[in-house]
Amino acid sequence: MISLDAMGTFTLIVGLLTLTPGLDTALILRTAALGQHRRAWGVVLGIQSGTLVWGTLASLGVTALLTTSHLAYQTLRWAGAAYLVWMGGMMLWATWRRSSNESPRTAGAKAGTEARTGAGDTLLGGWRQGTATNLLNPKMGAFYVAVLPNFIPAGTSHLGAGVLLAGVHILLAVAWACALIAFARVLRDRLRRPSARRCLDRITGTVIAAFGIRLALGQ
């Protein structure tokens, strides 16, 4: 049985990790701020699905391969870096393409249509994006390998304790995501203008691509 002191310490660690601005925060804020609430919640569910997978694998000792096998870690690192650079690059390319191909009037009409119809606003699409972003981040696996075993007492089911601890992390992350989505609603009206939407996508795309480059450089 995990002691209350150990649970409190783990909660503090993952709470600070959750509150630290990063890729997850940028992705959730961008998606919700554009009014794509179903997709935003899909992203949240996908990220937390990935967290549960990492927690389960770490409790079973599978993710220890990331620290013992240089090839496994490097393969996942490069795959994650390529995915993030591609995702960020696609966001940037889409804004430049819209900026050059559309007049202000047609851009505004298109943005209004997307807002009304919820184009691209799907729970499944967000879930796929969130899951891929989380599972292709080897630093998540390395974090769980380094931290989780320290909070699983001897003689306790590793799987049960690992899932319980991952569940604590997920609850904190979902609570933080609720705050982010609520904050994004305040920004939604200001982002109805095509120029504001392009600016948001360029900032988010740059942040995501930068995370990918940092991951590729091993930082």
Structural features, described:
The protein has 10 helices and no strands. It is 81% helix and 0% strand. It is globular. The chain has helices at residues 4-19, 23-33, 37-59, 65-68, 70-101, 104-117, 123-135, 138-147, 158-188, 194-216. Helix 1 (4-19) runs parallel beside helix 9, helix 2 packs antiparallel against helix 3 (37-59) and helix 3 (37-59) runs parallel beside helix 7 (123-135). By secondary structure, it is mainly α.
The number of helical elements comes to: 10
Number of domains: 1
State the distance separating the first and last CA atoms.
36 Å
Helix content: over 70%
Find the count of extended strands (DSSP E, 2+ residues).
0
Q: Gyration radius, to the nearest Å?
A: 19 Å
Structural class: mainly alpha
User: What is the approximate shape?
Assistant: globular
Biggest sheet character: none
Average residue pLDDT: 82
What sequence of helices (H) and strands (E) makes up the elements?
Answer: HHHHHHHHHH
Uncertain segments of ≥5 residues (pLDDT<50)? 106-119
Range of strand content: under 5%
Descriptive labels:
10 helices, 219 residues, mainly alpha, 81% helix
Structure, briefly:
Helix 2 (23-33) runs antiparallel to helix 10 and helix 3 packs parallel to helix 7 (123-135).
